[in-house]
Write a structure and sequence with these properties.
Layout (H helix, E strand, L loop, with lengths): L6 E8 L3 H9 L4 H4 L5 E3 L12 E6 L4 E10 L3 E8 L8 E10 L2 E9 L6 H9 L2 H16 L3
Antiparallel strand pairs: 1-7, 2-3, 3-4, 4-5, 5-6, 6-7
Organism: Saccharopolyspora rhizosphaerae
InterPro entries: Polyketide_cyclase/dehydratase, START-like_dom_sf
Protein name: Polyketide cyclase
């Protein structure tokens, strides 16, 4: 039996421009609208990410609160964060979003989960259970929200 990969990705094209999609990702208050893991309950308004080093909080559906430490940021193109329990060291997993405009108001979006540096034993089972299909669910929901013209 082989172990699951420690870095998984999913990619799809979305019929919206990169700026619109990036706003939905970089504003934590919007994330519960499209979270394909059904893990996010809410995030306070006013936390729009603007730079590497920013920290935003989210409340999970189980009531837990996470600090998310932004470790990569390029406006409109790339954002990545490492979640942790409030006031605790980051356990070593990372969520990344990369956007590439492909023309005609369309954007290729790649969503990656990297748990290659995960050190917290209690998180390993969930990390191992996270699949490309989980990431694709977030991409599909993000597309629904981004493509909504109403």
């Amino acid at each position: 039996m082989t172990s699951p990969p420690h870095v998984i990705s999913s990619r799809r094209e979305i019929a919206a421009d990169a700026e619109r999609i990036f706003e939905l990702i970089a504003d934590p208050a919007q994330q519960p609208r499209w979270d394909g893991n059904d893990n996010l309950a809410e995030a306070p308004e006013g936390q729009r990410v603007r730079a590497t080093g920013d920290v935003f909080t989210t409340t999970l559906t189980n009531g837990g609160v996470r600090e998310n430490h932004v470790v990569e940021f390029e406006e409109g193109r790339r954002i990545a964060w490492r979640p942790s329990d409030v006031g605790r060291p980051e356990p070593g997993h990372l969520w990344r979003w990369e956007l590439r405009p492909v023309g005609d108001g369309r954007t290729e979006v790649t969503h990656t989960y990297d748990w290659s540096q995960l050190t917290e034993e209690k998180r390993l089972a969930r990390a191992k259970a996270t699949t490309e299909e989980n990431l694709r669910a977030s991409l599909d929901r993000l597309a629904e929200v981004a493509e909504d013209r109403g």
